[in-house]
Amino acid sequence: MKKVFASIITIGDELLIGQVIDTNSAWIAQEMNKIGVPVKHRVAVGDVWDDIWQALDEESKSADIIFITGGLGPTADDITKPLLCQYFGGKLIMHQPTLDFVTHLFENVLQRPMIERNAKQAEVPDVCTVLKNEKGTAPGMLFEKDGKIFISLPGVPHEMKWIITDSVLSIITKKFNTGFIEHRTLLTAGVGESFLAEKIKAFEEVLPVDIKLAYLPNYGMVRLRLTAFGMDKEKLNQHIDHQFNLLKENVKDVLVIDEDLPMEAVVGKLLKQKNKTIATAESCTGGYIAHLLTSIPGSSAYFTGSIVSYDNRIKEQLLHVKKETIETFGAVSEETVKEMVKNVLHIMQTDYAVAVSGIMGPDGGTTEKPVGLVCVAVADKNKTITKKFNFRFDRNRNIQLTATNALNLIRQLIVDNS
Question: Is residue 189 part of a domain?
Fold first, then answer.
């Protein structure tokens, strides 16, 4: 059975200069993965006729499904529609159902006059299948050539997603026997990518050739992902589950969770399971740990609040850190974060608490306390643990590493209490 592949071409100068981040490709790839279609290439091109044409030629050589997003607007730089018309040998015609919808949208919903430029949104090549777009004015278009399908979609993310969900997925699954893709992902902490690779070297050497292992490092954590493709879903799951269990056994001493979850979700899941609560006292991270915890839906069940004590006055006045502690040991010290965590635990009346203080950079460091020095404390009513880290990266990465490692430290305390 021939494996079906997809490619994604995103169009727009704004993508190439970094003005707009391409989230469309990531979302399309995720949706294709769900129906067993791997994405072979992702290509970004500007609003240049020859570049778009060349991308279509190149991607159709190796992919069965070619997605094109962007360039369907009403302005002069939106050249995708006339290009596709020429590429597939058609001519532009007015699509009456789309025109009726756009007219209704402007006159009845937006209550704005319909101008000729807006009406042109309803023009489509006569060689395409029109894909209705109930979230905007530009319809999607589907072309077929040499057994391949080309799907042109608006660049506006919520419009693109609606068209794919409403019609494209069912079209693909009816036309192609796509098979299944299965992933298994786990999260490790406390060991770097190279050491982890050495640790599971024997496992990797005998891994079946039809299962791929990927290393995904990020801010002190490493995810390991197994991926396999097959036509029989039940056999595929049995095959990959067996290897995943072997992998978990090989990394059990550094395993955080055998799911594809970020650290903040892992901590939240533990707290929810145990019906416990948490609060934070943050200096150098400026509330970022609280932000991560509350980014998880349902976090109100376990997160009570945070005191962002960036200034030493706040540490003293709101967190009741002794002035002599700061004067003697400094704001960035295990002694200070120990008082911060104990006091926020009492103030917030929670089961657990996290406190951090550090020097994020680029300046503010000294020989004794360099940029990247961070002190973390975690606590419950019976135990307080402190730990020093020396990250020494740029400011943003230092903040993210601080948050991730602080969350891992509190995770370990929660697990130890189990």
Answer: yes
